[in-house]
Amino acid sequence: MAEENRKFKLIQLPIVARQKLMKMMDNVDLFELSLCSIRMARYVRALRIEAERHNITLTKGQSSVSVHFRKQPGAICERYRNGPLSLNEYYCDYANIEAGTAAVSKHFQYLFNGPLNIVICPSILRNLDEMFSEPELQKCQTMEICGSEATSKALRSIFRNMRIEKKLVVRPRTNQDYVIEQVWWKSKSTG
After folding, report:
1. Nearby residues of 131 by Cβ (< 8 Å), 6 or more positions away
2. pLDDT number for residue 89
3. For residues 122 and 147, what is the distance between their CA atoms, to the nearest angstrom?
4. The sheet that has 116-120: what strands, in order across it?
């Protein structure tokens, strides 16, 4: 076998050696490794790397899912629409942006545990039920709803199973007939 054809077989290393080697890698490289196979994703998850935060932004001007880390500057980001890309960003295209957002966020959260923050404009999205049916998206640290007036149906799709831990901001006017029960219940139990 020619010298240049030899390959380094990461998965054949003993567990401790493999983990030490993988812990020396950048988080972006670990993310890329996780895309190779389910086994590699499990190996990356086993490192228990904590994310400072996960962000989902679905607004008229920006659609992205990102994960930010304490120890390394920068973030890993998946974008859904055309726009300027920088280092550590990947572009992907989903016909159903809600399903794509859920899939990418679910993978990031599987690999790198951390709190979730959501900024969403419900008026530009078609299938909020599908997105918020994913267990990984049913609990967040903060949520901001922006854009034009949110319909009762959109709010119901968002808040049906949602648990917000720290902060909820609703910028647009909402239908007065819709009550965000989680907020009422939380304020009643803490007040």
Report:
1. 98, 99, 101, 102, 125, 137
2. 72
3. 7
4. 89-91, 75-79, 63-68, 53-58, 116-120, 139-145, 163-170
- Tokens encoding 103: 């899939």
CB 165 within 8 A of CB 140: yes
Task: Compute CA distances 188 → 14, 122, 131, 155, whole Å.
Answer: 54, 27, 28, 20
pLDDT of residue 105: 94
- Cβ neighbors of 67 (< 8 A, separation 6 or more) are 27, 51, 53, 54, 55, 75, 76, 77, 108, 112, 114
What proportions of the chain, in percent to the nearest 5, are helix, strand and coil?
A: 40, 25, 40
For residue range 74-127, list pLDDT tens digits in order. Answer: 566 665 555 555 556 777 778 888 889 999 999 999 999 999 999 999 988 888
Mean pLDDT in the chain? 83
Which parts of the chain have pLDDT scores under 70? 1-5, 72-88, 175-191
Return the pLDDT at 94.
Answer: 83
> Which pairing describes strands 63-68 and 53-58: parallel, antiparallel, or unpaired?
antiparallel
Domain boundaries, the chain: 9-49, 50-190
